[in-house]
Amino acid sequence: xxxxxxxxxxxxxxxxxxxxxxxxxxxxxxxxxxxxxxxxxxxxxxxxxxxxxxxxxxxxxxxxxxxxxxxxxxxxxxxxxxxxxxxxxxxxxxxxxxxxxxxxxxxxxxxxxxxxxxxxxxxxxxxxxxxxxxxxxxxxxxxxxxxxxxxxxxxxxxxxxxxxxxxxxxxxxxxxxxxxxxxxxxxxxxxxxxxxxxxxxxxxxxxxxxxxxxxxxxxxxxxxxxxxxxxxxxxxxxxxxxxxxxxxxxxxxxxxxxxxxxxxxxxxxxxxxxxxxxxxxxxxxxxxxxxxxxxxxxxxxxxxxxxxxxxxxxxxxxxxxxxxxxxxxxxxxxxxxxxxxxxxxxxxxxxxxxxxxxxxxxxxxxxxxxxxxxxxxxxxxxxxx
Length: 385
Description:
The protein has helices spanning 13-24, 49-57, 61-66, 107-119, 165-170, 192-196, 237-241, 243-251, 300-317, 322-348, 352-367, 369-379, and strands at residues 3-9, 29-33, 46-47, 69-71, 73-78, 83-89, 102-104, 124-128, 132-137, 142-146, 149-158, 174-188, 201-205, 211-216, 224-230, 264-275, 279-280, 283-285, 291-292. Helices cover 36% and strands 29% of the residues. Helix 1 runs parallel beside helix 4 (107-119). By secondary structure, it is of the alpha+beta class. It has a domain at 3-71 and 101-175 and 272-347: 3-Layer(bba) Sandwich (FAD/NAD(P)-binding domain).
C-alpha cells in the first residue's frame, strides 16, 4: 500500500492551497474531493493582503490578479439615506505588505488554478469524485477510507467544509450557534458604482435590512455585483427567493424597475462555530472544517488559507505540531469570530443613539491616520495573521 506524506480532504480554496503548499515543499500529497468538479456557485470573494502574499509564494499571484478585481478601498454607508459614512484605504498599509489592496474574485478560480499546478507535479495527485467516509489513525499513520479504498499517510488535513467528515470522524464538537436570520445573495449586472458612486466593496447599515455590495470579476471578466441582504427571521425560503421579494430588495437600493434582473440567487444559514480542537494526533482541521463565521469582512476564507500555509510549513519542517492548534484556534476566536460578530452588529444596530454613535466612530477613525491604519491592520488580518 502506497504511503503518502499528506492526504488533504476537500478541494476548495483552503484544501487546494494546503495541498499545493505541501507539494511545493517536496512532500508527497494526495488531494481528495467528493464532487466531480469544483463548485463554482457564488461564495467567498475577498482576498486580503496577507493572503495575497501567500499566493505570491505559491506562484499564483500573477494569474490571480488577472482573473480578479483590485479593490483599494471599502466604504460604510447609511442605507436608509444612501449616504456615505466613511471610507478606508488600503494604501495606508504600504510598507506593511507588498499588496496594499484586496482582490475581488470568485473562490473557485483559486481552487482551479491550484489544481492545475498540482496535476503537473510528480509528487502530487488529485482525485475528484473521491468521497471520504471515515478517517482513522494509530501511532504510526492515518488512514482515509474513500470509494471502497483505504489510503495511508503520515498526516491528514481536513479542509472539507462546515459539515466536515474528517471532523465528525474524530468526534470533535463544533461549538457555537446559528443566527436566526439567513443571508440572501443576489448576483446582478446592475452597475452600483455608476448608480451610487460607491466603490467595489460597500457595507450598508440599516436596522431592518442591511445590504452589502461587492463587485467581482465574473468568469467572463466583465464584472458583476453581489448584493447581500439579511432575511427576516420569520421569512420562509420560498418567500425570500421569490421574484417579487428579490425585485423588492433591489428596489430598496435604488435599482430602477427596468433593471431589476438577476443572474443568481443564494440563500444560506449563517453560523458562528469553532471546533473544540484543530488537531488530534496526525489529523488536522483547516478552514470551514475548523471554524465558520458570518462572511461580513471577508475573514473566513482568508484565515483558512493562513492556517493551510502555517500547517504546510510545520509539516515540512517537522516543527512543533502542537503549535498549530495553540496558535490558530485562539486567533480564530479572538480575531475572526469577534470581528465578524462586531461587523454584523455595526450594520444592524437598531437603537438610534447607538447607531449615530457607531457612524461617528467610523468617521472619526477614517479621519485619524493612526486609527485608520490600525483598523485596516486588524480588518486585513495583518495584525495577527
